[in-house]
Amino acid sequence: MNTRRQAQQLQNLLKSSKIGIILSLLLGLALIFIQSSVTNPKIVSAWFLLLLLVSLVRITLIILYQRSTEPDTAVMHMHLRNIRIGTLISGMIWGSSGILLFSAHNPEHLIFLIFILAGLSTANTISNAADLVSGIGFLILALSPITIRLFTEETDLYTIMAVALILYITFMIIVMRFIHGSTTKNIIMQFEAEAREKEALEREERYRLILQHTPTGILHYNKDLVVTYCNDRFAQLMKAPKEKLIGLDMKTLKDQSILPALKKAIEGEEGSFEGEYLSTLSNTMIWGIMFYAPLCDTTGTINGGIAIIEDITERKEAEEETKNLLHNLKKSENTLLYLLETSPIAVRIAKAGGQEVIFANNAYARLIQADQSTVLGKNPRNYYANKEEYDAIVMQIDNKKIIYDRLVELSINYQTIWALASYTPIEFEGESCILGWFYDITEQKNLQIKLEQQKEEFETIFNISKDGIAILDMESNFLDFNDAYMEMTGFTREELLATSCIALSIPEDRERAIKIMKTVATEGYVKGFEKTCLVKEGKRIVITMTLTLLPDKKRILISTKDITDMKEHERQLEYIAHYDALTGLPNRILKSDRLRQAMIQAQRREEQVAVLYLDLDGFKEVNDRYGHSIGDQLLVALSARMKQALREGDTLSRLGGDEFVAIIVNMQNTSIALQIIQRLLEAANQPIHLDDLMLQVSASIGVTFYPQHNDVDADQLIRQADQAMYEAKQAGKNRYHIFDPEHDRTIRTRHETLERIHQALKDNEFVLYYQPKINIRTSKLIGAEALIRWNHPKQGLIPPLDFLPFIENHPLAVEIGEWVIDEAISQIERWSKQGLDLPVSINVGARQLLQGDFVERLRVILSRHESFNSSLLEIEVLETSALEDVNRAAHIIEECRTMGIRFALDDFGTGYSSLTYLKRLPVAILKIDQSFVRDMLGNSDDLAILEGIINLASAFHREVIAEGVETLEHGERLLLMGCDLIQGYGIARPMPSEKLLEWSQNWCQDHLWRLES
C-alpha cells in the first residue's frame, strides 16, 4: 500500500510539475519583458536562459520516469529526489531574481516582481502539494531573498511589504500542509476502496464459479416462479439452451408436478422432491431428486427459492430393478441375492426392532466403510449421527409406515456421510424386519453446504461493507440494501423498500438517472459516476455510484460511497481561491472572471458595463489609531453596506486593503451607473458604530465604461478606473471621477516617450555636441559648452527641446544628467591626450542639483577618472533652478568648489536677479541670456539690461559671458561694454567632439574676430 501510495503521489507531483514548469517559463518571459527596462538586459537574459535550462532538465526527468516500466521503490526515490532537486534549483533561480532584478528606485517594477514571485509561489505550492519538501522548499527559496532585500532597504513601505511576504509564506506553508494531508488521505481512501471492491469481486467470482461448475443443477427463481438464474448443469439436465431457461415462467410449463414443492420454498419450507419430470423444452423425461429451500435477503425476507436438482434416472432404474428382484425373491433367492450383491444401492435388513443387521450387500458395506463379513450382527443405530432420529424411524416402521428418501446424517469413522434413506417393514425368515436402502449423496450435500457458506460470506460482505450497497429491480425499486446504505441515506428499511433509487435523485438529475438505468440494462455495467441524492429530511448528499446488472438480468447491484465531505472540502478550497477571507466578497481572481463575462454579455446584448474603483478616504487613520481589529470590523461593515447599494447581478469585489472594485452590468445608458455611484458614496460616508466608537470615512470612486471606441481588455478597464479614482482623490475625495480616454492617451504618449528615452540611454543613442567659447579681446578659445543630442536610429539627430521637456521633474533627468557629466569628463581626457586642455561646461537641472546626494554621486563619477583635472569641469545651473532652494544650492556649490569645480549661473536676467541671491550663491560666472543679446542692437531696453548685468558682475567680482552672439557687430558692442567672453552661432555652431579639435586649430588663422580694445 505504501509503495502504491508513493507511486501515486509521485505521479501527481509529476503532473503538477509540468504545469509549474510551463507557468514558470511564461512568468519568466513576462518578467524579462518588463524588467529589461529597469535592469541590465544581459543580466535579465542570462537569468532567463538559466531558468530555461533548468526547466528543460526538469521536463527531461519527468519524461524519463514516465517511460520507465513498473519502477521499484529505489527508482521512485531516485526520481523523487531528482524532481525535488530540480524544483529547489528552480526556486533558487526565482529567488535570485529578487536580488538581480530588484529595483529599489522603481516601486512599480518592484511590486510587479513581487506579484510574479508570489503568484508563481502560490501555483507551485498548490501544484507541489504531493510533496512537502518540493512545495515548501520552492516557496522559501523563491521569496526569502526578496524578503531579506526589502528589510535591508530600511523604509517603512518596504518593511511592511517584507512582513507581508513573511506572513504570506507562513500562510502558504499551512495551506500546503493542509492540501498535502487531504491529498494523502484521499489516495489512501481510494486504495482502500479499490481493495475492498477487488475482494468483493473475487468472492463473487468464486461463488459464481462454484455455482457454474457444480455437478448438480442449480436453479434460482422469484416469488412468481420465474427463473432468475440457472447453471450450465441445470441446462444440460433440461437439454435446453441456458438463455431460454432464464426468465422462463414455470407456471406455463406443461408438466407442473414440481410446482407444489417449489411453492413450499417460497412459503419458507425446506425439503426434497423426487419423481419423473417431462422437460417441455426438449420433450425429455428424466427422474430427478430436488432439494428446495427459500432464498432470503439479509433481513430474512423471502425473495424466491433455490433448488438443487440431481438426475437419478439411472439410480431409479437400479432401484426399480432391485424392487423387481425383491418382488421375485421367493421365486429365486439365489437370483435375488445376486442382484442385491451387485446392486449399486446400499441395502441392509435389520431385525429385533432394527437393532441387528442380518443382511447387507457390498454397497452397504462400502457405505459404512467396513468389510462385509463384519457388518452382520451390528446395531445400525451406532452409525447414525442423531440416534434419536433413528429411533423415530424405527417407531414409524413399527406403525407399518413406509419412508422414502429421508435425508439422514451418518457418522462413519469420524466422517459425516449424507444419504437418502428409504425404509419399509418386511417379513424375513419369519421375523418382522426393517428393509433399508441408501443412496450416498455426500458429495452433493457437501456442495450444498459450501454454497450456503459462500452465500453467508457474500451476505457478510454485503452487510459489513462500509460502502452503501443495494439491489434494485429494473424499475429502480429497492429490493435489498445493507446497513451502510441505510446509514448513508438516513431512511429506515421500510421507508427505502417503499421508494425507488430514481426517487432519491434530485429533480434536475432524474432524467440522467433514468438514462443510466437504461444503459445498465443494455450494457450491463456503469462505472462510478457522481450524482446528488435526496436523503432523510430533504438533505442532499453527493455520492459516487457503480451499477452492475446481476446474472438474472432482472436485478441491478449498486455500490455507493458518500463523498459529500470531500466535495465540501473542494468547495471550501474553491471559495478560498475566489473570495476574500475577511469580507466574503469576490477577490481579484473572481472579479476578473466576472468582468470578462460581463464584457462578453455587453457586446452580445449591445449594453454597457461600468467599472468602479473605490478607495476609502481616512481608513488608514482609523487603522493606525484604533488598530487592525477595528479596521477589519470597519471593512466588514462597509463591505456589507456597499454591497446593499448595488443591484442583483452587479458585483462588488475587494482587491485588498481598503480598495474595492464594483462591476455594474445590464445598463442601457450611463445614468444607471451614476445613481448606483451616488448610493455607494452615501453608503461609505454614513457613520458606523463599533463598540463605543463611532467611525466615519468616505470613498473616492473612479469610473470607466465599456465598450469604448478603442479595443480594451479587462485589465485596462481596471487601470482606467484606478486612474480616475486617483483624479477623484486629487479633487478633494468623497466624490467620483469619470475616466477621460483622451487625457489617458496623452499620459500614455508621455509614458511611451519616457520609456523610449530610457531605452535610448541604455543603447547609447545620446551624443554630446560642443559649442566653443572665446575671449574676443584676445581671440583665445577659453572653453566649450556640452550640449546633448539624440542620435535616433530612424529619425536622425533630434535636438534637446524635442525630448528634454519630457524628462523634466522625472528621475530619468538625473540619469541622463549623470551620463552627460561622465561623457564630458571622458571627452576632456581624450582631448588632453591629443594636446588640447579645454574646459567644458555642462548643464545641470534643478532636480539633479538639489537631490540629497548630488555631491556624493558626483564624487563617484570623478572617482572613475583618477587622472582628471577637475578644474576643467564647469557646471551651469539655471538661475530659476538655483533659486528653488537658495540655501541648499549654495551649500552644494560650495562643496563642489572645494573639489575644484566652477559654477556658472545660466540664463541670468530671466529670473529674479536678486542682489541678495547673487551675494549668497558662490558662482564664478554669470551667463547673459541670449534673449537680451539677440536684440541689443535695436532695443534700448535690452541694451540697458546688458549694461546693468555687466556692471553688476563687475561689482560682485564675477566673470560674465554673453550667449547668442550672431554677428561681428554684437561682438564689437559687447567688447565696448566690458564683456570679453562670448559664444553663439557667430562664433560657431555646436559640433561633434571630433571636429572641435580641427576647428580650434583653424580658429587662430581667422582675423575677423581679432578686435582691438
SSE layout and pairing:
Blueprint: H1 2-35, H2 41-67, H3 73-100, H4 107-127, H5 132-152, H6 156-213, E1 217-222, E2 227-230, H7 232-238, H8 242-245, H9 259-266, E3 271-279, E4 284-296, E5 302-311, H10 313-327, H11 333-342, E6 346-351, E7 356-360, H12 362-367, H13 387-398, E8 403-412, E9 415-428, E10 431-440, H14 442-464, E11 468-473, E12 478-481, H15 483-489, H16 493-497, H17 510-523, E13 525-534, E14 540-549, E15 555-562, H18 564-578, H19 588-605, E16 608-617, H20 619-626, H21 628-644, E17 651-656, E18 659-667, H22 671-685, E19 688-690, E20 693-695, E21 698-706, H23 714-730, E22 736-738, H24 741-762, E23 766-775, E24 780-792, E25 796-798, H25 804-807, H26 811-833, E26 840-843, H27 846-849, H28 854-863, E27 873-878, H29 879-882, H30 886-897, E28 902-908, H31 915-920, E29 925-928, H32 930-934, H33 940-955, E30 959-962, H34 968-976, E31 981-982, E32 991-992, H35 993-1003
Parallel strand pairs: 21-22, 24-26, 26-27, 27-28, 28-29, 29-30, 30-31
Antiparallel strand pairs: 1-2, 1-5, 3-4, 4-5, 6-7, 6-10, 8-9, 9-10, 11-12, 11-15, 13-14, 14-15, 16-18, 16-21, 17-18, 19-20, 23-24, 23-31, 23-32, 24-25
Helix pairs in contact: 1-2, 1-3, 1-4, 1-6, 2-3, 3-5, 4-5, 4-6, 5-6, 6-14, 20-21, 21-22, 26-28
